[in-house]
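Hi V.,

You were right to ask for the full record rather than a summary. Here it is.
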Amino acid sequence: MRTVLNGPPDVLQRWLDERRARGQDLHDEVWEGVYHVAPAPHPAHGYLDDELAAVLRPYAKAAGLTGSGPLNIGSPDDYRVPDRAYLRGLPDETFVPTAAVVVEIVSPNDETWAKLDFYHRHDVDELLITDPRDRTVRWFLWGETGYVEADASRVLQLPATALHDAIDWPPAG
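Predicted structure:
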């Protein structure tokens, strides 16, 4: 569901400030100056995120990468918030220009698939998209004109099938 919220700027700003104060804005994004409000994901999303963190950690360490939960990739007026990212070092800024690997976990009605061009423009080497409902793992590698789906991560040296099999998937339902 898409919703456009019009109103006086001061009222909207107060509403956004309240969301921020309550910690409800963790997954909100700004797409070319347009604020995208994202609700908290389904519990299966968080479960899968925890599984992915545990499974991917040794591969990331072996590749010399630093893992992170949600963070801002881009600039203050145009950024996306992946569920997880693997970086070449730990940045000291709020808005990170790129990542080696970005992880997106599909939730109902989210905008995961609309983010690929943004990540490509920001030179994210690889994108991992997982779906807890379908129990799918899909790797995408940076290509000249866009991402190319692959059987394995080059950065993490991990086949999609091995990752899929290592995940203790959330119960179906």
